[in-house]
Amino acid sequence: MRGLAAVALVVALAACSGTPAVSLPTPVPIPDGWITSASGGVRITMPAEWPTIGDHPDGVFASVAIPPGTDPDVGLYALSPQGLGQPELPVNDERLAEWILDRLADRQPDSYDTSAVALPAGQAIRIRYHFDGEPGSFEAIEGVAYAIRTATGIAYLQIIVYASLVDRYATAMDQIPYLFELVADDEE
User: Fold this and answer.
1) Residue 122 contacts by C-beta under 8 Å, 6 or more apart in sequence?
2) pLDDT tens, 43-81?
3) Domains of the chain, first to last
């Protein structure tokens, strides 16, 4: 009996002293007409008009050209930890934000903000960003990118939308990260 009391005391103390587990949100309901794609250890659900670009061993890629045949106006990159180089250790929030910014382009966005968010796939650092357009060259770009901490490493999700389409795809940009998941090869 004495041994059981000691075990109960140790369990109670461990429960009090540990850091509380962070609960992750559940995926959002899938909107009507959206499709699910899986490749490279990633499964993601997105608007049907965002067709995937072939099967990739690293993840899911999609792009939309409006009108068809022109340069892409929307892009999505969803990569598993195995599909990308991992950030240097220690992996803290600041390092993850730098890692995301390094992946976006050859230069820093014209403006951005960083925040920590909880996604169903794991705790993440999110960067919402904006690149100014260049008249006669390209339109302004709005985007959001996530470094998602998972049990197997850092996963990456990026959504890029021309500024003129942000109103059309704002809901998708907000919901897609909640429909991102890592899967085993046999679940694709």
Assistant:
1) 24, 148, 149, 150, 151, 155
2) 999 999 888 876 777 899 998 876 665 666 889 999 999
3) 25-187 (3.40.1000.10)
